Amino acid sequence: MDMGIRGKTALVCASSKGLGRACAFSLAREGVNLVITARGKEALEKTAEEIRAATGVKVVAVASDIATEAGRAAVLAACPQPDILVNNAGGPPPGDFRNWNRDIWIAALDMNMIAPIEMIKATVDHMIARKFGRVVNITSSTVKAPIEALGLSNGARAGLTGFIAGIARKTVAHNVTINNLLPGPFDTDRLRSNFANLAKSRGVSVDVVRQERMSQNPAGRLGDPAEFGDACAYLCSAQAGFVTGQNFLIDGGGYPGTF
Asked: What is the pTM of this model?
């Protein structure tokens, strides 16, 4: 299917690795030019080169921290009027809420709630003026099924979800959609690092932890980031203009609820 976005420009945040990288690749395969950003310059430049070599699209890499005003300004200077915005950021660390002070909470909110809202604020009116725009926020399956130790993420991402529900019904009349993708367990560096830490704490091999996690999922496996990236590309397509304000859970059936 031709997704009708060839020649568009996408700004993809936190895209040097993992799910952000997968989204950037899927968009590039559809002929979308990219501005990609992440904090680590070396990994970001490597990803940019790989995308250029694989797809031939234009890729601009901007190393910055979008959780900061300066970082957002640097990215938006390189891409002030994207047709597509993919918001993404690493999750805050787990822990016990009794140990989280105000500064820790503010850092989590800055990264996983305020930053994407600020990026939308800076770009959505340009999209409305052009009568085309797609915003996809990568959140987490914990929005649907909170994990107690991930309270910082639960709170910040749920706050973003509520905000999006309010504005997505206003922009769609202008062919500007805003949706959220909620990943479950995908085979990324972050998840592999979590497996390694858990294996060390339990005194077992990483493979044991990995197999346990896969067996707990109805699909019997971890998600392939490419699957996630292609779901993002669809939400950014011309055909997805009637889809807005939705939360797409991609977790292999791990969430057991009806709604």
From this structure: 0.95
